[in-house]
Amino acid sequence: MNDTLRGLYDVVCDRKKNPSEGSYTCYLFEKGKDKILKKCGEECAETIIAAKNCDNDELKNEICDLLYHLLVLMAECDLPLSEVMDVLEERRKKISNLKVMKNVDRNT
């Protein structure tokens, strides 16, 4: 598992258990799931805009913001990072399994 993601997730989980005054992460937990979901949506939109603008400097920063807020959401929902990484690993194993696409008559 990626040490950077694991380390950041651990810090996020620690902030949830041990609130620290002035911490943005603690602020998000204090405001609750609706605020966390709103931030995830905002960061997702900003990621899309950066990609559409072909601005890789901005894109990498927006992706990091989105990943951070997703980690906060995972902690809020008590979803371990390891479970998400397990799903990603299973999907990685299937990458070479091409699926045959069905021909569908979209005119009917």
From TrEMBL:
GO MF annotation list: ATP binding; phosphoribosyl-ATP diphosphatase activity
Subcellular location: Cytoplasm
Pathway terms, separated by semicolons: Amino-acid biosynthesis; L-histidine biosynthesis; L-histidine from 5-phospho-alpha-D-ribose 1-diphosphate: step 2/9
Pfam families, A to Z: PRA-PH (PF01503)
CDD domains tied to this protein: NTP-PPase_HisIE_like
Keyword RNA-binding annotated: no
Organism superkingdom: Bacteria
Presence of keyword Aminoacyl-tRNA synthetase: no
Gene Ontology BP term (one): L-histidine biosynthetic process
Reactions it catalyzes: 1-(5-phospho-beta-D-ribosyl)-ATP + H2O = 1-(5-phospho-beta-D-ribosyl)-5'-AMP + diphosphate + H(+)
EC number: 3.6.1.31
Keyword annotations of the record: Amino-acid biosynthesis, ATP-binding, Cytoplasm, Histidine biosynthesis, Hydrolase, Nucleotide-binding
Name of the molecule in the record: Phosphoribosyl-ATP pyrophosphatase
